[in-house]
Amino acid sequence: GIVILRGPFIIFANPTATLLLGYDKPEQVLGRSVLELLHPDDAKVAQERIENMLRTGAKYATAFQYRPAAE
Known about the structure:
It is built from three helices and two strands.
């Protein structure tokens, strides 16, 4: 699935990403911080990358583990 962020906030999630995250509709994840949806093992690294992107303009294409919606 594809998720696009502005800072830590989800501004786009395609239907596949939405289903992988355990939600029915993209609207359920839009505007949420991606950090709250990440698996705890990946949240710190993701936060560091987001802060670096905001500070330096660096870009990352990456994959992280997400928490199921029920958690």
